[in-house]
Amino acid sequence: MLVLPKGVRHMPGYLSRAVQEALVEDVRQVVQEAPLFVPTMPRTGKEMTVRMTNCGSLGWVTDKEHGYRYQPMHPVTGTPWPPIPDVLLQLWRDVSAYPHPPEACLVNFYSPDAKMGLHQDRDEIDFSAPVVSVSLGDDCLFRVGQSTREGGTKSLRLKSGDVVVLGDEGRLCFHGVDRIYPSTSALLKNGGRINLTLRRVTYPG
Ligand SMILES: O=C(O)CCC(=O)C(=O)O
Ligand SMILES: [Fe+2]
């Protein structure tokens, strides 16, 4: 059996096919209002391979000039992010064990050749809330390590409907997506993978 780092929870098949389909519709609406943008790395300006957008009162963005950050506006349209869909707010209540709602839902779209390098989610202020992540569409190879770059990593395949929670001592574990397995799901008509990452950014109150 694959033993994950403490505080890292993988819930395979947590969302039913019907809920996944409803979520895809929700994401389509979010993307209509807040189009996918091309994130670029701080300083180098190198383009990431995923396309992003957000919903919630805050969204995670990155660009060459200002780096990683949260902001209330879409970086291209300049308008506020659309609200987080109810299904995701309910998911957060069900799995986060955190008594306040998430503020940000990052939407990552992976085409078959996209990936995400090993990183920590650490642009938030309140680390007592977990990161809750949903996979939709094609499978991916997810890698998770310790809270420092040293120490080994474990790889696991995430499938459509899986939920991963990084909480407690797992909150700052390094993680990334090594590859997408094309055509492994029929959920998205044009293939690819969507990842939805719910986060609390600020302290409540
Ligand atoms: O796509 C994933 O499963 C992980 C995404 C992620 O780690 C992030 O957006 O910070
Ligand atoms: Fe992350």
From TrEMBL:
<keyword id="KW-0408">Iron</keyword>
<feature type="binding site">
    <location>
        <begin position="193"/>
        <end position="199"/>
    </location>
    <ligand>
        <name>2-oxoglutarate</name>
    </ligand>
</feature>
<dbReference type="InterPro" id="IPR027450">
    <property type="entry name" value="AlkB-like"/>
</dbReference>
<dbReference type="GO" id="GO:0035513">
    <property type="term" value="P:oxidative RNA demethylation"/>
</dbReference>
<dbReference type="GO" id="GO:0005737">
    <property type="term" value="C:cytoplasm"/>
</dbReference>
<feature type="binding site">
    <location>
        <position position="121"/>
    </location>
    <ligand>
        <name>Fe cation</name>
    </ligand>
</feature>
<dbReference type="InterPro" id="IPR005123">
    <property type="entry name" value="Oxoglu/Fe-dep_dioxygenase_dom"/>
</dbReference>
<protein>
    <submittedName>
        <fullName>Alkylated DNA repair dioxygenase</fullName>
    </submittedName>
</protein>
<feature type="binding site">
    <location>
        <position position="149"/>
    </location>
    <ligand>
        <name>substrate</name>
    </ligand>
</feature>
<feature type="binding site">
    <location>
        <position position="175"/>
    </location>
    <ligand>
        <name>Fe cation</name>
    </ligand>
</feature>
<feature type="binding site">
    <location>
        <begin position="68"/>
        <end position="70"/>
    </location>
    <ligand>
        <name>substrate</name>
    </ligand>
</feature>
<dbReference type="GO" id="GO:0035515">
    <property type="term" value="F:oxidative RNA demethylase activity"/>
</dbReference>
<feature type="binding site">
    <location>
        <position position="60"/>
    </location>
    <ligand>
        <name>substrate</name>
    </ligand>
</feature>
<dbReference type="InterPro" id="IPR037151">
    <property type="entry name" value="AlkB-like_sf"/>
</dbReference>
<keyword id="KW-0223">Dioxygenase</keyword>
<feature type="binding site">
    <location>
        <begin position="108"/>
        <end position="110"/>
    </location>
    <ligand>
        <name>2-oxoglutarate</name>
    </ligand>
</feature>
<dbReference type="GO" id="GO:0035516">
    <property type="term" value="F:broad specificity oxidative DNA demethylase activity"/>
</dbReference>
<keyword id="KW-0479">Metal-binding</keyword>
<feature type="binding site">
    <location>
        <position position="119"/>
    </location>
    <ligand>
        <name>Fe cation</name>
    </ligand>
</feature>
<keyword id="KW-0560">Oxidoreductase</keyword>
<dbReference type="InterPro" id="IPR004574">
    <property type="entry name" value="Alkb"/>
</dbReference>
<feature type="binding site">
    <location>
        <position position="123"/>
    </location>
    <ligand>
        <name>substrate</name>
    </ligand>
</feature>
<dbReference type="GO" id="GO:0008198">
    <property type="term" value="F:ferrous iron binding"/>
</dbReference>
<dbReference type="Pfam" id="PF13532">
    <property type="entry name" value="2OG-FeII_Oxy_2"/>
</dbReference>
<feature type="domain" description="Fe2OG dioxygenase">
    <location>
        <begin position="101"/>
        <end position="202"/>
    </location>
</feature>
